[in-house]
Fold this sequence. Notes:
Blueprint: E1 2-7, H1 19-26, E2 31-36, E3 49-50, E4 60-61, H2 63-75, E5 82-92, H3 95-102, E6 106-110, H4 120-125, E7 130-135, H5 145-156, E8 189-190, E9 193-194, H6 204-222
Parallel strand pairs: 1-2, 1-6, 5-6, 5-7
Antiparallel strand pairs: 3-4, 8-9
Helix pairs in contact: 3-5
The chain binds 6-chloroguanine.
Keywords: Cytoplasm, Methyltransferase, S-adenosyl-L-methionine, Transferase, tRNA processing
Function: Specifically methylates guanosine-37 in various tRNAs.
Subunit structure: Homodimer.
Amino acid sequence: MRIDIVTIFPEFFDVLEVSLLGKARSSGLLDIRVHDLRDWTHDRHRTVDDTPYGGGAGMVMKPEPWGAALDAIVRDAATRPTIVFPSPAGEVFAQATAREFSGRDHLVFGCGRYEGIDERVFDYAATLGDVRLVSLGDYVLNGGEVAVMAMVEAAGRLIPGVVGNPDSLIEESHEDGLLEYPSYTKPALWRDREVPPVLLSGNHGAVDAWRHEQQLARTRERRPDLLEP
Ligand code: 6GU
């Protein structure tokens, strides 16, 4: 899978060189290219923002550098990409979104800063690819970089071969619409706290039933919204 990330803070993404995604990059499973939006400016100050038409607080990202960046990235692409703009005003990112993104050949992420990107950029991007505005949830970040990091990790780990043991992808929170069951390891007694005896019983049917009951109980308790029809 190819992933292009456009940002005014390319160094934010240095951490994509470590851990499982870093390995997937070295092995060629993931082709991640980080671009500095300012490379597509032409003035001495490499300006990417300007004051909003109609007035108001803050600055808006100018359309020209975005247009040039998207043109350059899509020009040498083999397929029509999915172009994702992180935005608190977007659809909410969920495991299903991660799953969907993980199946795409080419993702382009455009990280906005300030009060946002000139709206015409989204319209223009739709001529080059399938545009998605995506939010991590109902709170505000300073820019799209942290959100893109989360989306790249959530989607990247679902690409076959990125996570060493595919079984570890199956029994996780949200994959079956429920929260994950609690996990324990040795010792069986730690600081007066026991591991639930059923897990030591060797009865796999009883273990499975207990785990499912735990999933339902904690989902009811912590995330009742997930159980609504
Ligand atoms: Cl995707 N961007 C920003 N700036 N803030 C957010 C967000 C995204 N998701 C939640 N808050």
